[in-house]
Amino acid sequence: MSVTATYNGEEVDVVFIAETERNDYGVPGSPVWYEVNPDSIKIDALSILGLDVDIAALPKDLQDAIYALADEVEFA
Fold first, then answer.
1. pLDDT of 15-35, one tens digit each?
2. From residue 45, how far is each of 13, 18, 57 by CA, in Å?
3. What is the 3-state secondary structure (H, E, C) of the chain?
4. Which residues is 13 bridged to in the sheet?
5. 61-68: long-range contacts at Cβ-Cβ below 8 A with a sequence spacing of 24 or more?
6. Into how many domains does the chain fold?
């Protein structure tokens, strides 16, 4: 299942998308929940100072810093 999250900063707006994985306790009748697979997080849209930006056009260190913003948002 795909989920999204949006980070709205002062100068940067990012829309993340990710896939979830089904989890449970491994016993019959246990609760079931879904968790975001951190390896599946992608950037769907990025704007910096109101301009749309292609994440691939940015230096690797800046890309990593923008992807780190996913830790600050709630996926739904």
1. 999 999 999 999 999 999 999
2. 8, 13, 13
3. CEEEEEEECCCEEEEEEEEEEEEECCCCCCCEEEEECHHHCEEEEEEECCEECCHHHCCHHHHHHHHHHHHHCCCC
4. 8, 47
5. 66/12, 66/14, 67/41, 67/43
6. 1
Amino acid at site 62:
L
Distance, CA of 26 to CA of 62 (rounded, Å): 40
**Residue range of the domain that includes 14:** 2-72
pLDDT in tens, 38-65: 999 999 999 999 999 999 999 999 999 9
Residue type for position 30: S
Euclidean distance between the first and final Cα of the chain, in Å?
A: 10
Handedness of CA 57, 50, 73, 61 (dihedral sign): positive
